[in-house]
Amino acid sequence: MEKQGKVKNGQMAPTEKEGEKHVVRNMAIILLIVAVAIAIAIAMIVYIAVIKECVQVSLSSTPEWSPYRIDTAEAIIGVTLGYPKAYEEYRYEYQAKLYNMNIDLLAALGNDSELSSVTWSLGKLAQYISGIVVSCQHAITVMSIQPQYNTHHNRSIQPYYNNEASMITMACTCLNTETSSYAAQAAADVVWREIMNENNTLNEYSLGLAAQALIATKNETFRHGIAKSQMGIISKLQGKIPEIMKKGAAVSQILPALANSSFLDIEIHPPLPGVPVTANWTLNITIGVEDPILTNTTRQWNSSLLVPSNATLLQAMEALQNEASSNFSFDTVPTSFGPMVITVYGITRNETNMYWRIMKAPDIPLQTGIADTYPQNNDHYIFKLTSF
Prior knowledge:
The protein is of the alpha+beta class. It has helices at residues 16-59, 71-82, 86-89, 91-111, 118-134, 162-175, 178-196, 204-217, 223-237, 241-244, 248-258, 313-322, and strands at 7-8, 11-12, 280-291, 297-308, 330-333, 340-344, 347-348, 354-360, 364-365, 379-387. It has two domains: 55-140 and 157-266, no CATH class; 280-387, Ferric Hydroxamate Uptake Protein, Chain A, domain 1 (Beta Complex).
C-alpha cells in the first residue's frame, strides 16, 4: 500500500511521490525558463550581428548621384535608429554621409531658396529633415512641416496596399487626434493581418515598414506580429546584405525595425555624443614617407599645424595637406575599419601586393586607423610602402 502523508499543522503533508513530482515540475519550469532566456540571447546576438553588417555596408557605400536621390538621408535615418553606436564606432564614415546630405541640401537651397521644385516637394525635404533631426545637427535651421492628412475617407485599405497601410499607421499615430487614432488602428489591423497571413509575400522592405508600424502603435497585442516580421527580415537578408544595404531605402526601413524602433522615434532619439566645440591648438608633428619599392623616395615634413583640440592623425594629415607651403598629399578609400591610405606624396600602392604601413617612429606599428589615432606634441609618424 502507498504510504499515507503525515499530518502537519492541521494539513496532510505530501507523500514522497508527490514531493518528487513537485521537484520534477519545478526543475522542468526552471529548464524551460533557462532555455527561453538562451533563445532570446541567441536571437539578440544574431540581430546585432546582422544590424552591424548592414551598417558597415551602408556607410561604406556611395550611391550614384541623382537629383531625385534621397538615399543619403534615408541611410542616416536607418543607421542612427537601427544602431545608435554608429556615430562612435564608424565616426568617419558616418560624418561623411552627413557631409553629403548637407551639401545636397545647401546646394538645393542655393538654387531654390524655398525648395519649391517637384523634386523636393515629393518627400525629399521630409527625408532630409528627418535625417538632420535624427543626427542632431543643430547647425542648420530646419523648417517646420505640417503635413495634412485626410483621415476622413471611405476607401478601405486593402492588404495589397501594405506599405501604404504601414505609413498611414505611423502618420496617424503621430497626429494622435481622435479621428487619426481610429485611422491608425484600422491601418494597423491591415498590417497585422498581412503579417500573420501564412501566404504573405512581403519582401524585406515591406516587412521592415510593417514592423515599424506595429512598433509605433505601442500595442502589446502586436508583439507576435513584430517578432514574426523581424524573423522574416533576417531570413530574407541571408546572403543579400552586401547588395541590399547599399540602398538608403533598405537601411531606413529595415534597421529600425530590427532594433525595435520606428520613424516616430526620430523625435525622441537621445542626442548623439557630439564632438565638443573647442578652440584650435598648435600640434608639432613629424610625418615621413619611405618608398623602397616603387620610387626609392624618402621625404619628411616637420610641421606646426593648427588643428582642433584632440585632433586625429587624419585631421593632422589634412591640415598638412592644406598648408600652402607644403607639397604633402594623400588619398584614402573608405573601409569598414575607417579610411585606408592608398596614396602618399603622389605614390599609389599596388592594391594586389602592397600597402602603406603606418608606424610611430622608430618602428611601432599603429594599432588603430588614422581616424582613430590621436597624436601628441612632437610625435613622429612614418608611412612606409610595404609588400605583402
